[in-house]
Amino acid sequence: MSSMVTVTETDERSPLLHNSGEITPFTSPSPESSSSATDPKQRLVSLDVFRGLTVAKVSSKPAATKKVILRAIKLFLLGLILQGGYFHGRDDLTYGVYINNIRWMGVLQRIAIGYLLASITEIWCVNKNEVNSAVTFVKKYYIQWVVVVLLGVLYMVLLYGLYVPDWEFEVVNGNSSLSVPNGTETQVVHCGVRGSLEPPCNAVGLIDRFLLGESHLYQRPVYKRTEECSVNSPDYGPLPPNAPAWCLAPFDPEGLLSSLMAAITCFLGLQYGHIMVHYKGHMQRIMIWLVSSSSLLVLGYVLTVTGVPLSKPLYTLSYMCITTGASGILFLAIYYTADVINIQKPMILFQWMGLNALIVYALAACEIFPAALQGFYWRSPENNLFNATELLFETVLHSEKWGKLVFVLFEIIFWGLFAGFLHIKGIYIKL
After folding, report:
1. Phi and psi (nearest 5°) for 318?
2. How far apart are CA 389 and CA 400, in angstroms?
3. Mind listing the pLDDT tens digit for each residue in 383-417?
4. 44 by DSSP, 3-state: which?
5. CA distance 397 to 141
């Protein structure tokens, strides 16, 4: 998922946006659609689908900064509750977490970091120059681009420059097929390299182990699904014979260093919103977005070909460029469909989910609702409505893969309708 943030307008219904006396809502109707843009009940659909952050008119910078910091803290704490280990997800009817093993980082924590950095620069680092050309646009927001470059350089220097020595971790008996006696055993991972992007010896894991602690990292990283670590690859499964020790090591895909690169996507999305604000014509906006998104896609592809791997766990530069560019293309397609040719009904589910994104994320993506639903079962925990529905699709389609795909699409429609119900009732969950 790209953490792209678009500057459009503030809205009290959106859980991650400002709505205070210090930060005034901003609207930017285009000449071609002024009737829909100026009517608060008929806002641009694409803004609901792909909305984000704006600090358009700030009357008190210190007060706005305070609200940004408080919002980021609340978002970070919510992430700790949802992804810190208290909820155990599907197929586990227990809950609770040992404080010494709480996971510090997660998706919402990463969003909080990007949100904080982007908001602070929008409040303090944007001058009051009027934008009437590409040159004045760059001059107005150049400090944000400087921050982007600094974050990118810092990430690349640490990723390729840090020396990763040999390191060790503890394996608890019963969690592996390695020869571990009763209790725990210390496993040693041999590295002694610099600039490695392989699972056991990269600088991303090194920084997280040093600053966060091994016990506070994600315990089921994606590399446990590789052929070296799972007989059921590309899914989780038992360890194959002679599996390397690092297969059992923790690794956080939302770690500190990778979150620096993820924060850059917030700044890039911010510029997409700035284009919405300063350029009023539909085609003018579309051409700028198209060139920007295509450039990011091409740059990401070139980086991949030249040796920078496409890695989500490390959030590499190539991954950031490709996912942000793809997000921009998707946003452009939605904008053109909903606001230019005015076909809005197919976008209604996205609009509803955008208005209540936080509650949908908590219940669906963090698997709180599936786990709660699995609490009601017949004779054994496996016989529950959630698993039965998934099994039904697989049986009807005579394929496990296609059945899972249709089940996922069914879930998306379900949560879209659920968000629509909340919208009809005027219920919006926000921080």
Report:
1. -65, -40
2. 13
3. 888 889 989 999 999 998 899 999 999 999 999 99
4. coil
5. 52
Angle at 169 between CA 167 and CA 171, to 5 degrees: 150
Distance set, CA 108 to CA 44, 63, 167, 255, 324 (Å): 26, 23, 29, 12, 18
Which of 156, 169, 399 is CA-nearest to residue 261? Answer: 156
Give CA–CA dist 333/355, Å, rounded: 19
> The whole model's pTM is what?
0.83
Q: Which tokens in the block code for residue 57?
A: 């008119």
Going by C-alpha positions, the residue among 137, 170, 391, 121 that lies closest to residue 277 is: 137
Phi, psi of 396 (to 5 degrees): -65, -40
> 95 exposed, middle or buried (CB, 10 Å; 0-12, 13-18, 19+)?
exposed
Q: Are 200 and 228 in contact (CB under 8 A)?
A: no
pLDDT in tens, 366-377: 889 988 888 888
Strands 184-189 and 193-194: unpaired
- Tokens 């989910």 sit on residue: 353
**Residue 156 amino acid letter:** M
Sign of CA dihedral 16, 21, 23, 26: positive
Q: What would the two tokens of residue 260 be?
A: 């620096």
